[in-house]
Input
Amino acid sequence: MLTLASRLRALDDAALRRAIEARMVSPTGIKDFFDLAEALLDPVAIQNALAHLDRSTLAVLAIAGEAPVSDDGASEESAGAALAGPVMAAADHADATAFAPTTAEIAARLSILGERAIPVVQVEAAATQLDSLLLAIYSDGRLKPYDAVSAHLASWPAQGLPSALMLASVAAPPSFAPPTDTDTAFTTNLAAERAFTAVSSLAELVSEISREPVHELSRGGLGLPDTKRLAAAAAVEVEAVPTLVALTARAELIAKELGYWRQTELGEAWLMGSTAHRWSTLAASWRASLPTDVLDILPAQAGVFWDGELRDFLGWLYPAGGTWLDDRVTAVQAEAEFIGITAHHTTSAAGGAVLAGAFDEAVAIMEGSLPAEVGAVYLQHDLSIVSPGPLAPSIDARLRALADVESRELASSYRITAASVNRALAGGETAETLLEFLRSISLTGIPQPLDYLIRESASRYGRVRVLPASAGDAPVQSVVRSDDPALLGTIEVDQTLTPLGLHRISSDRLGSRFPVDVVFWALSDSRYPVAAENEAGEIVHVRRIPLAQKAPVVASDPAVDLVERLRTSDGGEGKAAGAWLARQLDAAIRTKQTITVSIAMPGGVVVDYLLEPASVGGGRFRARDRRADIERTLPISSIVSISPAP
Output
């Protein structure tokens, strides 16, 4: 442990932080570099690190640890005993690896065991990784695992895990068999069906959130009413809503702001894209979310059966992977199945392209398999609109501004009402632009009732205006005005508008303490022909729900905090040496071990005592002298070295 503690102290802050993060060290209970070294060499921590290493790297580590250790200082324990005074000198890598095998010797040994040539450069890469993970010391072309690591690896066969020989000699399972054309076509079509369903559900969820934000509970998660509303909009089970919200949030289509999930600017643009490009955004965010170790092991090849060939291969590649790897693959697989990366647990052609990072190719594959988008609809005399297939997103988005969605399937239906037309007019449309749009997409012309409704609504639109209050209108924030005294009087006494606190401020104006957007949408929901205008009297568009602004997430980094705490607690060479000596004495007291302690006497003479330590405190330690059979109290500062009794 001394060698590792000394090495940790010598690392710069960046390297130390990377090592702590890579080994996933919990900062709890770690006060100094000795605590950190002890935590890293704990059997559980070692096993956790080894579980994340592939077979070839483990084989290098195991073979390096099998090399004989000389009696004159190669092991860290003997080095620690001999160098207890100048404690930091023990971190010298050249000394620690003086008797360790070279990477060329390890490569030669692996080549013999595996019956195939192992290049030295492969071993060097593995040695560099092991060194960065603080499982071994790699210096001057020699690799020396820490003794605790080698001991743990030696215990593997008793735990049902492979020995060094098996790590080096057991061949990989057969390569993934290429799929047949029939299998590929089936998987591609099924994956496209999954992709279309996923994109449609998520688009409906984003649209619903843009209409009405969703509150995030203080304890996390969504309330049941919001969850049911989103489930109905997305046509999914209630249990699936948290997953869909997580997917859209990860793709940055929605974002949490002031405790509410809202649509983002990216989400607004995403709704206008084609189905294939919407899917590409989801697939890209899925791939970006994959941990590096998982992405590296997922083959970018169509036709791979995840529950068979892939898991067999992973079991061979990560022999100590255990549940962590299986859990990660299972979580990744569930999302992959949902968005069409896989179908029936088999990688689709588009999914293989996504895993390879070839998104243009993936989009092209999806475009050839997804249902064709249509650009025309049937306008009915009952003011309903029926689409004969999936509408182009740009047409669908504009229709949603003009009409209410009644059903969302491959063939969607909408219904136009006076309120929906007023909503479109409030969004900046006019009777002429609406009628021209409907003519451009209608297969049946424009029915007379629909033409009348739009023109009548447009003629009435703006009879009530909402505008910001002027300085002389204080303390009100907004003003409602109309040239129709009867209509203004109706608004004034409307009980549904009582919360706005509307009151007369002149013969043709009402005042409210609420801002323009609140008053505007309250009047619009009450079906008044209201328009918003600015100080110049120009009609302006009022967005009902503002887009969420993605704020940078500032989170505390436990690794950074731990490094700062270690540096603060470290008091230099003298303090570190004293801490190490105290650790050795404490260990001897706990185990009631007899040790040989070398004490520097006045005049420079060093005297060895065979002692059984009893207590440590105040810079001194009390021990039983086994040879003289007396009790001694000695200063810790005079200790030159400590070693186990012969």
